[in-house]
Amino acid sequence: MKIKLPFTEQFLWDLYNFKNRTGDVINKFFPETKGLPFSDFNMFRNEWTNENKKKREREKSKRRFTWLLRRLKQGGYLKTLKIKNESAIVITSMGLDRIFKTELKLTEKEPRKDGKWQMVLFDIPESKRRDRDYFRKALQYLGYEKLQKSIWVCKYNVELETKELIRRYALGGYVELLLIQKIGLG
């Protein structure tokens, strides 16, 4: 099942994954235009009109991209740094957190072949309330279902992702992972 991501998350995800594919991201927002040869005035007029339309579209794309960057900076997901008289856009820890959540949403979830369930038990103190809330939301993204407020179960094979989640939020001392045979009475 393909999940449709909000535009902000999709952009951050693309930005995170582009590594050596800078051109792909740039072309997505600034499409190339190609002039065609023309032989008479009508072709010239049509071409000129098309070029102006393309130019307006390009300008519109640039404005949208600038607006998006500004919005992501204001949201705390990106920041601009000066490095050797050059400006660089950097993903902040908040942006990486959003990317991590997006990665959890996009994780392929396959049911466990052995029929067992992954169980998460946690007792996260009030002083880490924000992390606890993020943790619960991330468990939902991974396909966990709530049995009680701090007991969640999942039929999918997401053990590695769950361990990464616990490590990422530094919750090792508050969380227990169990593998169980069945749920319920009987």
The chain-level mean pLDDT equals 78
Order of helices and strands: HHHEEHEHEEHE
Please state the overall shape, judged from the principal axes of the Cα atoms: elongated
The number of helical segments is 6
Summarize the SSE layout with pairings.
Elements: H1 7-17, H2 22-29, H3 41-74, E1 78-83, E2 86-91, H4 93-106, E3 117-122, H5 129-142, E4 145-148, E5 151-154, H6 159-168, E6 175-180
Antiparallel strand pairs: 1-2, 3-5, 3-6, 4-5
Helix pairs in contact: 1-4, 5-6
Structural overview:
14% of the residues are buried. The protein folds into 2 domains: 7-93, no CATH class; 110-180, Alpha-Beta Plaits. The protein contains 6 helices and 6 strands, in the order H-H-H-E-E-H-E-H-E-E-H-E. Helix 1 packs across helix 4 (93-106) and helix 5 (129-142) runs antiparallel to helix 6 (159-168). The chain is α+β, with helices and mostly antiparallel strands and 186 residues long. The protein has a 4-stranded antiparallel β-sheet with strand order 4-5-3-6, with helices on one face. 49% of the residues lie in helices and 17% in strands.
